[in-house]
Amino acid sequence: MALTGRHSESVRSARGGSVHVQVKRAYDPPSRDDGARVLVDRVWPRGLTREKLKIVAWLPDLGPSTMLRKWFGHDPAKWQEFRERYLRELAEKGPLLRQLAELARGGRLTLVYSARDTEHNQAVVIQELLERGRKG
Predict the structure, then answer these.
(1) Helix pair 94-103, 6-14: axis angle to 10 deg
(2) Residues of the chain with pLDDT under 50
(3) Is 1 part of a structural domain of the chain?
(4) Of 3, 16, 33, 65, which has the maximum CB count within 10 A?
């Protein structure tokens, strides 16, 4: 599924300046280079406080639906199908994607997630979506 159409339009129209989007595990220590840190998990990470996460926002509704998350189960063999299904869910989340873009206007945005797998998680999909929207 291409990351075009409504996805990139909603992000591009909300942002004027350039932005660097990175992803980081919730259990990795925050850094001064993180910029605006936003938790994009539907479920709060175990054992962590808001102060420890140093997030500016938690957008639980941006995370994959409970049904999709449970189906995926972080199985890399299901990654492509998860990604396609999640992109369809994100197509309905324009206001939240614009909120992310606004938080990152002219700076750096760190999408925080709690999954152990650093390559197969929702933050990676959101990062790709935002980066593609920026490039037009």
Answers:
(1) 40
(2) 1-16, 136
(3) no
(4) 3
